[in-house]
Amino acid sequence: MKLKQITACLVAATLFGSNPVFAQASKVSGDVVKIGVLTDLSSTYSDLAGPGAVIAAKMAIADFSKDGTVIGKKIELVSADHQNKADIAANKAREWYDKDGVDVIVELVSTNVALAVMEVAEQKNKITLVSGAGSVTITNEKCTPNNVHWAYDTYALSNGTGKAVVKQGKKNWYFITADYAFGAALEKDATAVVTANGGKVLGTSKHPFPNSDFSSYLLKAQASGADVVALANAGQDTINSVKQASEFGINKKQTVVPLLMFISDVHSLGLNSAQGMYLTEGFYWDKDEKTRAFSKRFILQHKRMPTMVQAGVYSSVLAYLNAVQKAGTDDTQAVMKVLKSTNIDDGLFKGKIRADGKFEHDMYLLEVKKPSESTSPWDYYNVRAVIPAAEATQPLSLSKCKLVTNK
What is the dotted CATH code of the domain comprising 155-281+364-389? Predict the structure, then answer.
């Protein structure tokens, strides 16, 4: 009798051990899969990321699993405000990774925050999925093996908006730039596009981040006589810049070009102020049936249409959970291996993740509609061009990422 019991146990162990679900279901740290949304909940970028990013993450979890589990383990979501300060973000990341068992941190608007948290994540062997920060540095000089840059970067913005405006014959540019990593990267990438297409940069002014009074910088831009006053900033800084440029009458003789603008910014400005402006995004709620279906569910909870950043949070959380499911574990290397070997198509974004951690997907060149062209709430854009993924992404041959070996 004892021999039969032992034999039965051995057979059961063999069967469970050979089944990936049984073999790896226990390979979940802390017996829970925990996702952290670290974002700006109260400041310059809270409108384009913030609470909407938390809602997007919750939607992804609900869409992935009706009972809130993955490989039989509970999915938990936590969120915090990094206040756009790298030290606060890094400390929160350490706390989440070390004490709270967080497996992945998502969103991370503002480049200084993203880079700080990426560094902590690499030290702790954890994952970061960046949707809000834009600097190409994230997948270039500062790339890490555990990070994916999801929604957009400064290379895509420059090769979308910047190239389109130069091709209109507006060759002489003046930059008003946020004085931190993102602003510097955006100005650098846009300058490369301007000069490569026969244009010239006449000057630049750097402003503190965040900032409210842009008068001195705008007057210098006006005095330069440049065709284009390029705004290498984002969020409330961009909104304030555009409003004050209008007050000075700068937009009557010069073209004001926000190099990064979100639908939340257009909504705040209104079509009267924003009409005719070009911008580049990786997501637009009214692009097709799938984006509309998602966005109509989102607006019921947030009362605003999703930005590219918020859509990126949804997409990245959904992809992460699918990768955990496929890997059968929340182990960092196993999940990253699945992410980098899986084509992603979730109805919002479609593409693949490269060796440097860049999620390569199409971008869209958009023009803000005139008030007379808008037929319904949030009907703000004309899609002027689709920028193919390969064109919207820095070639790996130019990469400075330590993970790229086939240059």
Answer: 3.40.50.2300
